[in-house]
Amino acid sequence: MQRRDFFKLAAASTALPLLSSPLSHAAPAQNGRSFRLTYQVSLPADGNLASLWLPLPLTSPDGWQVAEKAQADGVANSQGEIDDPQAGASYYHAAWQDGAPRQLGVSCLARTVDRGTGVNALPNGQHAKLPKHTRAYLDPSQHIPVDGIVLDTARLATRGAHTPLEKARAIYDWVVDNSFRDPATKGCGLGDIKTMLQTGNLGGKCADINSLFVGLARASGIPAREVFGIRVAESKQFKSLGKTGDVTRAQHCRAEFYLAGYGWVPVDPADVRKAILEEKLPLTDPKIVALRDKLFGYWEMNWLALNHARDFSLKPQAANNPINFLMYPYAELDGVAREQLMPDQFVYRIIAEEIST
């Protein structure tokens, strides 16, 4: 397929029909919005075996996002949606076993509502017991260690803080104060927090900065996780915190921590640093001060959450398991990963459309 023909197909993808789902029966929520996310992918006909994984919007048990089943337009030797609750991800997988054309469109509808916790009313989490399902988010992983320099930094950041809520806020403030957004970072960064701390270079993008929050929180005994997603609409806060035209490169990682006696609390220190850089405002500017306070306990849902899977193995078995995270489309040809950010190796487009309800 020629590149120009592929993008004609991508433009036509908004005509994919929508499946009926519980979304259409959900009670309307204040500030609720619905978005259709569509992938259009074209893989080279190189080699004999091609495999593709596409991250899909998640459904939150708390109701701030509800997604329907994905549907596909295209032919593959095998394809279908895979739900991996242990990893915390749902994704669409397709495989081709010969050199036949490898084009696929996948569409999914999700409904969101702005997520705010009312931080001033939160319990301190000091005496409540952590539910069993949150304990996995205290564990280390390849990119999120919780000992050594990470533990030492967590102790420094939380000095003088006593309750889990105080510690989480102290870590959030430490990350905002000490990190910076580096526009030269490729994609969303790698989130390799040990290297960041060892080198003293706390620059990066969202996966770096918000993974730093996650690692320091876990080292402090607070369950925390990244939430990988994509911006799908303009922001009411700052222009830099919304999509800018094509959303194919609008991926954004956020974070959340678990507060016993309450639940998951959203945070986004990386967007504070993004606004500082791109709006050209100092950390002390009143608008940044207000944003900093707001993003400890708030997500503007002009963004779709995809998953919180980190350092995990794709199904069916990928040759390069475990992968760091699944925020971009991921493909392997004859067991060799294709670079998601290089269009000559891996051509895809992501389309976001807001749906009136």
What would you call the structural class?
alpha+beta
In the predicted model, the low-confidence regions spanning at least 5 consecutive residues are 1-29
Name of the level-1 CATH class of the largest domain = Alpha Beta
Helix content range:
10-25%
User: Largest beta sheet, briefly?
Assistant: 5 strands, antiparallel
Average pLDDT, to the nearest integer?
89
Q: Per DSSP, what share of the residues sits in E-state strands of 2 or more residues? A: 25-35%
Q: Tell me, what's the shape? A: globular
Number of strands: 20
Radius of gyration: 20 Å
Under the CATH scheme, the architecture of the largest domain is Roll
> What is the rounded distance between the termini?
36 Å
Would you tell me which CATH topology of the largest domain applies? C8orf32 fold
Note the run of SSEs as H and E.
Answer: HEEEEEEEEHHEHEHEEEHHEEEEEEE
Count of discrete structural domains: 2
Count of discrete alpha- or pi-helical segments spanning 4 or more residues: 7
Quick rundown:
This protein is α+β, with helices and mostly antiparallel strands and 357 residues long. The chain contains 7 helices and 20 strands. It has 2 domains: 136 residues, Immunoglobulin-like, CATH 2.60.40.2250; 186 residues, C8orf32 fold, CATH 3.10.620.30.
